[in-house]
Design a protein that fits this description.
single chain, 376 residues, alpha+beta, 2 domains, 16% strand, elongated
Length: 376
Protein backbone atom coordinates (compact mmCIF):
# COMPACT_ATOMS: atom_id res chain seq x y z
CA UNK A 1 0.00 0.00 0.00
CA UNK A 2 2.85 2.36 0.82
CA UNK A 3 4.31 1.80 -2.65
CA UNK A 4 1.00 2.69 -4.30
CA UNK A 5 0.69 5.85 -2.20
CA UNK A 6 4.24 6.90 -3.08
CA UNK A 7 3.60 6.26 -6.77
CA UNK A 8 0.41 8.32 -6.67
CA UNK A 9 2.22 11.19 -4.96
CA UNK A 10 4.97 11.25 -7.61
CA UNK A 11 2.50 10.89 -10.50
CA UNK A 12 0.34 13.71 -9.18
CA UNK A 13 3.33 15.97 -8.77
CA UNK A 14 4.66 15.14 -12.21
CA UNK A 15 1.30 16.07 -13.76
CA UNK A 16 1.16 19.38 -11.90
CA UNK A 17 4.84 20.08 -12.57
CA UNK A 18 4.47 19.32 -16.30
CA UNK A 19 1.40 21.55 -16.60
CA UNK A 20 3.09 24.46 -14.81
CA UNK A 21 6.44 24.28 -16.61
CA UNK A 22 4.81 23.92 -20.04
CA UNK A 23 2.38 26.76 -19.34
CA UNK A 24 5.02 29.18 -18.06
CA UNK A 25 7.51 28.00 -20.69
CA UNK A 26 5.01 28.54 -23.49
CA UNK A 27 4.20 32.07 -22.28
CA UNK A 28 7.90 32.99 -22.05
CA UNK A 29 8.56 31.34 -25.41
CA UNK A 30 5.76 33.28 -27.12
CA UNK A 31 6.95 36.59 -25.66
CA UNK A 32 10.51 35.78 -26.73
CA UNK A 33 9.35 34.72 -30.17
CA UNK A 34 7.70 38.12 -30.67
CA UNK A 35 11.01 39.83 -29.90
CA UNK A 36 12.76 37.52 -32.39
CA UNK A 37 10.53 38.81 -35.22
CA UNK A 38 13.23 41.41 -35.81
CA UNK A 39 15.18 38.63 -37.54
CA UNK A 40 12.60 38.83 -40.31
CA UNK A 41 11.43 42.44 -40.29
CA UNK A 42 14.81 44.08 -39.65
CA UNK A 43 17.53 41.56 -40.54
CA UNK A 44 16.03 39.92 -43.60
CA UNK A 45 15.98 36.27 -42.52
CA UNK A 46 13.28 33.89 -43.70
CA UNK A 47 10.40 32.62 -41.59
CA UNK A 48 12.01 29.18 -41.78
CA UNK A 49 15.13 30.49 -40.00
CA UNK A 50 12.90 32.34 -37.53
CA UNK A 51 10.89 29.19 -36.75
CA UNK A 52 13.94 26.98 -36.20
CA UNK A 53 15.68 29.64 -34.12
CA UNK A 54 12.73 30.13 -31.77
CA UNK A 55 11.96 26.39 -31.51
CA UNK A 56 15.54 25.47 -30.60
CA UNK A 57 15.58 28.08 -27.83
CA UNK A 58 12.72 26.35 -25.98
CA UNK A 59 15.00 23.96 -23.97
CA UNK A 60 16.87 26.99 -22.62
CA UNK A 61 13.61 28.43 -21.29
CA UNK A 62 12.64 25.14 -19.65
CA UNK A 63 16.07 24.90 -18.04
CA UNK A 64 15.82 28.37 -16.53
CA UNK A 65 12.31 28.06 -15.09
CA UNK A 66 12.54 24.43 -13.92
CA UNK A 67 13.43 25.11 -10.23
CA UNK A 68 10.65 27.66 -9.87
CA UNK A 69 8.09 25.40 -11.58
CA UNK A 70 9.07 22.49 -9.32
CA UNK A 71 8.78 24.67 -6.22
CA UNK A 72 5.28 25.84 -7.19
CA UNK A 73 4.10 22.34 -8.12
CA UNK A 74 5.39 20.69 -4.94
CA UNK A 75 4.16 23.43 -2.64
CA UNK A 76 0.72 23.44 -4.28
CA UNK A 77 0.48 19.64 -4.11
CA UNK A 78 1.31 19.44 -0.39
CA UNK A 79 -1.18 22.22 0.43
CA UNK A 80 -3.81 20.54 -1.74
CA UNK A 81 -3.20 17.13 -0.15
CA UNK A 82 -3.51 18.61 3.33
CA UNK A 83 -6.66 20.54 2.45
CA UNK A 84 -8.37 17.38 1.12
CA UNK A 85 -7.10 15.12 3.94
CA UNK A 86 -5.06 13.08 1.44
CA UNK A 87 -1.97 13.26 3.65
CA UNK A 88 -4.06 11.71 6.41
CA UNK A 89 -4.41 8.61 4.21
CA UNK A 90 -0.62 8.27 4.20
CA UNK A 91 -0.40 8.43 8.00
CA UNK A 92 -3.30 5.96 8.45
CA UNK A 93 -1.56 3.40 6.26
CA UNK A 94 1.64 3.58 8.31
CA UNK A 95 3.66 5.99 6.20
CA UNK A 96 6.03 7.97 8.40
CA UNK A 97 6.47 11.64 7.68
CA UNK A 98 10.22 11.20 7.29
CA UNK A 99 9.58 8.47 4.70
CA UNK A 100 7.47 10.79 2.56
CA UNK A 101 10.05 13.56 2.95
CA UNK A 102 12.81 11.16 1.88
CA UNK A 103 10.76 10.20 -1.17
CA UNK A 104 10.41 13.87 -2.13
CA UNK A 105 14.17 14.42 -1.70
CA UNK A 106 15.04 11.45 -3.92
CA UNK A 107 12.57 12.71 -6.51
CA UNK A 108 14.16 16.17 -6.34
CA UNK A 109 17.67 14.72 -6.76
CA UNK A 110 16.57 12.88 -9.92
CA UNK A 111 15.05 16.12 -11.18
CA UNK A 112 18.32 17.92 -10.43
CA UNK A 113 20.22 15.40 -12.59
CA UNK A 114 17.68 15.94 -15.35
CA UNK A 115 18.33 19.69 -15.18
CA UNK A 116 22.07 19.02 -15.40
CA UNK A 117 21.54 17.04 -18.61
CA UNK A 118 19.19 19.71 -19.92
CA UNK A 119 21.47 22.64 -19.05
CA UNK A 120 24.80 20.95 -19.68
CA UNK A 121 24.07 19.30 -23.01
CA UNK A 122 20.59 19.70 -24.51
CA UNK A 123 20.14 23.46 -24.08
CA UNK A 124 23.62 24.52 -25.35
CA UNK A 125 23.31 22.18 -28.32
CA UNK A 126 19.89 23.59 -29.14
CA UNK A 127 21.05 27.20 -28.84
CA UNK A 128 24.15 26.54 -30.94
CA UNK A 129 21.94 24.86 -33.53
CA UNK A 130 19.69 27.92 -33.51
CA UNK A 131 22.68 30.20 -34.01
CA UNK A 132 23.93 28.00 -36.87
CA UNK A 133 20.71 28.72 -38.78
CA UNK A 134 21.54 32.43 -38.53
CA UNK A 135 25.11 31.80 -39.69
CA UNK A 136 23.96 29.77 -42.70
CA UNK A 137 21.12 32.10 -43.65
CA UNK A 138 21.61 33.87 -46.96
CA UNK A 139 19.02 36.61 -46.29
CA UNK A 140 16.49 34.82 -48.48
CA UNK A 141 13.77 37.09 -47.17
CA UNK A 142 15.60 40.21 -48.38
CA UNK A 143 12.44 41.94 -49.73
CA UNK A 144 11.16 42.38 -46.15
CA UNK A 145 13.95 44.79 -45.30
CA UNK A 146 13.86 46.81 -48.52
CA UNK A 147 11.71 49.78 -47.59
CA UNK A 148 11.18 52.60 -50.06
CA UNK A 149 11.95 56.03 -48.64
CA UNK A 150 14.30 54.75 -45.92
CA UNK A 151 18.01 53.98 -45.62
CA UNK A 152 18.47 50.26 -44.92
CA UNK A 153 21.70 48.96 -43.36
CA UNK A 154 20.54 45.59 -41.99
CA UNK A 155 23.39 43.78 -43.74
CA UNK A 156 27.06 44.22 -42.99
CA UNK A 157 28.91 46.55 -45.36
CA UNK A 158 25.91 47.58 -47.46
CA UNK A 159 23.58 50.58 -47.35
CA UNK A 160 20.49 50.76 -49.56
CA UNK A 161 18.13 53.62 -50.34
CA UNK A 162 15.13 53.27 -52.65
CA UNK A 163 12.94 56.23 -53.42
CA UNK A 164 9.83 54.26 -54.35
CA UNK A 165 8.43 51.03 -55.77
CA UNK A 166 6.09 51.22 -58.76
CA UNK A 167 3.00 49.12 -59.40
CA UNK A 168 5.02 46.60 -61.45
CA UNK A 169 7.31 45.82 -58.52
CA UNK A 170 10.19 47.78 -60.06
CA UNK A 171 12.25 50.00 -57.76
CA UNK A 172 12.90 53.57 -58.89
CA UNK A 173 15.86 55.79 -58.06
CA UNK A 174 18.02 53.39 -56.07
CA UNK A 175 21.26 54.13 -54.21
CA UNK A 176 23.74 51.47 -53.03
CA UNK A 177 26.89 51.92 -50.95
CA UNK A 178 29.16 48.86 -50.82
CA UNK A 179 32.11 49.01 -48.40
CA UNK A 180 33.87 46.18 -50.29
CA UNK A 181 35.14 44.79 -46.98
CA UNK A 182 37.86 47.42 -46.67
CA UNK A 183 38.37 50.83 -45.11
CA UNK A 184 40.24 52.09 -48.19
CA UNK A 185 37.81 50.88 -50.82
CA UNK A 186 34.12 51.37 -51.49
CA UNK A 187 31.72 51.83 -54.33
CA UNK A 188 28.59 53.89 -54.86
CA UNK A 189 25.91 52.92 -57.34
CA UNK A 190 23.07 55.12 -58.55
CA UNK A 191 20.39 53.63 -60.83
CA UNK A 192 17.12 54.92 -62.24
CA UNK A 193 15.46 51.54 -62.01
CA UNK A 194 16.13 48.16 -60.35
CA UNK A 195 14.50 44.83 -59.71
CA UNK A 196 15.23 42.17 -57.11
CA UNK A 197 15.75 38.74 -58.70
CA UNK A 198 16.60 35.15 -57.76
CA UNK A 199 18.75 32.77 -59.78
CA UNK A 200 19.96 29.36 -58.56
CA UNK A 201 19.35 30.28 -54.91
CA UNK A 202 21.25 33.55 -55.32
CA UNK A 203 19.66 36.95 -54.89
CA UNK A 204 20.76 40.03 -56.78
CA UNK A 205 19.69 43.49 -57.93
CA UNK A 206 19.43 44.06 -61.67
CA UNK A 207 20.15 47.75 -62.11
CA UNK A 208 19.24 49.86 -65.14
CA UNK A 209 20.51 53.22 -66.41
CA UNK A 210 22.87 54.40 -63.75
CA UNK A 211 26.34 55.35 -62.64
CA UNK A 212 28.95 53.47 -60.62
CA UNK A 213 31.56 55.33 -58.55
CA UNK A 214 34.57 53.40 -57.25
CA UNK A 215 36.70 54.90 -54.48
CA UNK A 216 40.16 53.48 -53.73
CA UNK A 217 42.72 55.33 -51.59
CA UNK A 218 40.91 58.61 -52.29
CA UNK A 219 41.08 57.94 -56.04
CA UNK A 220 37.70 58.08 -57.75
CA UNK A 221 36.70 56.25 -60.94
CA UNK A 222 33.28 56.77 -62.49
CA UNK A 223 31.45 55.10 -65.36
CA UNK A 224 27.88 54.87 -66.55
CA UNK A 225 26.00 51.70 -67.38
CA UNK A 226 22.81 50.58 -69.06
CA UNK A 227 22.42 47.44 -66.97
CA UNK A 228 24.50 45.58 -64.36
CA UNK A 229 23.89 42.86 -61.78
CA UNK A 230 24.67 43.52 -58.13
CA UNK A 231 25.14 40.25 -56.19
CA UNK A 232 23.59 40.26 -52.70
CA UNK A 233 24.57 36.71 -51.70
CA UNK A 234 28.01 37.83 -50.47
CA UNK A 235 26.54 40.01 -47.75
CA UNK A 236 25.91 38.78 -44.22
CA UNK A 237 23.32 39.90 -41.72
CA UNK A 238 24.26 42.16 -38.83
CA UNK A 239 22.58 39.67 -36.50
CA UNK A 240 25.11 38.25 -34.06
CA UNK A 241 26.34 34.97 -35.55
CA UNK A 242 28.89 34.09 -32.86
CA UNK A 243 27.35 32.04 -30.06
CA UNK A 244 27.11 33.47 -26.58
CA UNK A 245 28.95 31.65 -23.84
CA UNK A 246 25.78 29.80 -22.76
CA UNK A 247 25.64 28.33 -26.27
CA UNK A 248 29.19 26.94 -26.27
CA UNK A 249 29.69 23.20 -25.95
CA UNK A 250 30.36 22.03 -22.39
CA UNK A 251 33.51 20.13 -23.40
CA UNK A 252 35.05 23.32 -24.77
CA UNK A 253 34.22 25.25 -21.59
CA UNK A 254 35.69 22.50 -19.41
CA UNK A 255 38.81 22.39 -21.55
CA UNK A 256 39.25 26.15 -21.15
CA UNK A 257 38.77 25.88 -17.38
CA UNK A 258 41.28 23.03 -17.04
CA UNK A 259 43.96 24.86 -19.00
CA UNK A 260 43.39 27.93 -16.84
CA UNK A 261 43.89 25.98 -13.59
CA UNK A 262 47.09 24.52 -15.05
CA UNK A 263 48.24 28.01 -16.09
CA UNK A 264 48.53 26.73 -19.64
CA UNK A 265 46.04 28.94 -21.45
CA UNK A 266 48.59 29.44 -24.23
CA UNK A 267 48.19 25.73 -25.07
CA UNK A 268 44.44 26.01 -25.45
CA UNK A 269 43.58 25.13 -29.03
CA UNK A 270 42.04 28.18 -30.67
CA UNK A 271 38.29 27.87 -30.87
CA UNK A 272 36.57 30.24 -33.26
CA UNK A 273 33.62 30.81 -30.96
CA UNK A 274 35.43 31.13 -27.62
CA UNK A 275 38.28 33.33 -26.46
CA UNK A 276 39.80 31.47 -23.55
CA UNK A 277 41.79 34.08 -21.67
CA UNK A 278 42.03 35.62 -18.20
CA UNK A 279 39.28 38.15 -18.91
CA UNK A 280 36.87 35.46 -20.08
CA UNK A 281 37.65 32.74 -17.55
CA UNK A 282 35.27 34.15 -14.89
CA UNK A 283 32.36 33.87 -17.32
CA UNK A 284 33.39 30.33 -18.23
CA UNK A 285 33.53 29.31 -14.56
CA UNK A 286 30.14 30.88 -13.86
CA UNK A 287 28.58 29.07 -16.83
CA UNK A 288 29.99 25.72 -15.66
CA UNK A 289 28.59 26.28 -12.16
CA UNK A 290 25.21 27.23 -13.59
CA UNK A 291 25.05 24.07 -15.66
CA UNK A 292 26.35 21.53 -13.15
CA UNK A 293 25.99 22.92 -9.63
CA UNK A 294 23.01 25.28 -9.56
CA UNK A 295 20.58 22.31 -10.05
CA UNK A 296 21.60 20.98 -6.62
CA UNK A 297 19.60 23.78 -5.04
CA UNK A 298 16.52 21.79 -6.12
CA UNK A 299 16.80 19.18 -3.29
CA UNK A 300 17.11 22.06 -0.80
CA UNK A 301 13.94 23.60 -2.23
CA UNK A 302 12.19 20.23 -1.94
CA UNK A 303 13.29 19.74 1.67
CA UNK A 304 12.07 23.18 2.77
CA UNK A 305 8.73 22.68 1.02
CA UNK A 306 8.42 19.26 2.68
CA UNK A 307 8.51 20.87 6.11
CA UNK A 308 4.90 21.85 5.48
CA UNK A 309 4.04 18.17 6.03
CA UNK A 310 4.94 18.52 9.72
CA UNK A 311 2.03 20.86 10.39
CA UNK A 312 -1.64 19.94 10.15
CA UNK A 313 -4.19 22.39 8.79
CA UNK A 314 -5.86 22.17 12.19
CA UNK A 315 -2.83 23.85 13.75
CA UNK A 316 -3.36 27.55 14.44
CA UNK A 317 0.06 28.36 12.99
CA UNK A 318 -0.49 26.40 9.77
CA UNK A 319 -1.21 29.43 7.56
CA UNK A 320 1.72 31.35 9.03
CA UNK A 321 4.02 28.36 8.44
CA UNK A 322 2.75 28.05 4.88
CA UNK A 323 3.51 31.68 4.01
CA UNK A 324 6.83 31.58 5.87
CA UNK A 325 8.07 28.51 3.99
CA UNK A 326 6.90 29.99 0.69
CA UNK A 327 8.90 33.15 1.40
CA UNK A 328 11.96 31.17 2.48
CA UNK A 329 11.97 29.07 -0.69
CA UNK A 330 11.51 32.14 -2.86
CA UNK A 331 14.43 33.74 -1.02
CA UNK A 332 16.58 30.63 -1.62
CA UNK A 333 15.86 30.73 -5.37
CA UNK A 334 16.71 34.43 -5.60
CA UNK A 335 19.84 33.97 -3.46
CA UNK A 336 21.04 31.09 -5.63
CA UNK A 337 20.81 33.26 -8.76
CA UNK A 338 22.48 36.26 -7.13
CA UNK A 339 25.28 34.24 -5.52
CA UNK A 340 25.93 32.56 -8.87
CA UNK A 341 26.87 35.95 -10.30
CA UNK A 342 29.47 36.49 -7.58
CA UNK A 343 30.74 32.89 -7.55
CA UNK A 344 33.37 33.69 -10.16
CA UNK A 345 34.40 37.05 -8.68
CA UNK A 346 36.43 35.65 -5.79
CA UNK A 347 36.96 32.77 -3.42
CA UNK A 348 34.41 34.12 -0.92
CA UNK A 349 31.65 34.21 -3.50
CA UNK A 350 32.55 30.72 -4.72
CA UNK A 351 32.54 29.26 -1.20
CA UNK A 352 29.22 30.90 -0.35
CA UNK A 353 27.56 29.65 -3.54
CA UNK A 354 28.83 26.07 -3.21
CA UNK A 355 28.41 25.60 0.54
CA UNK A 356 25.04 27.30 0.99
CA UNK A 357 22.87 24.45 -0.37
CA UNK A 358 24.96 21.71 1.30
CA UNK A 359 25.18 23.22 4.77
CA UNK A 360 21.57 24.41 4.75
CA UNK A 361 20.28 21.05 3.55
CA UNK A 362 22.30 19.02 6.07
CA UNK A 363 21.37 21.35 8.95
CA UNK A 364 17.64 21.22 8.22
CA UNK A 365 17.67 17.46 7.67
CA UNK A 366 19.53 16.73 10.92
CA UNK A 367 17.12 18.94 12.88
CA UNK A 368 14.25 17.18 11.14
CA UNK A 369 15.51 13.72 12.07
CA UNK A 370 16.07 14.80 15.64
CA UNK A 371 12.51 16.10 15.97
CA UNK A 372 11.00 13.04 14.30
CA UNK A 373 13.21 10.36 15.81
CA UNK A 374 10.33 8.96 17.83
CA UNK A 375 8.16 8.74 14.72
CA UNK A 376 10.63 7.20 12.28
Amino acid sequence: MKKLLFQKFIKDNFKIFSAIILSIGSIVWILQSVSFLDFVTEDGHSFKVYFYYTALNFPKIIHRILPFAFFISLFYQIVHYEKNNQLLVFWIHGVKKIQLINLIIVYAILLAFFQIILGGYISPKGQDGARSFIRSSNLDFFPSIVRPGKFVDAVEGLTIFIEKENENGMYENIFLKDDLGSENKSQLIFANRAELLNFQEKRYFKLYDGRLVKIHNKKIDTFEFETIDFDLSKFATKTTVFPKIQEVNTKILMKCLIYNYKNELQKFTAIKFLRCNKTQINNVQQEILKRFYLPFYIPLIALIASLLILRSKENKEYNFTKFLLFAVIFFVIVTSELSLRYSSQGIVGLIFFTLLPILTFVSIYLILIKNLKHKI
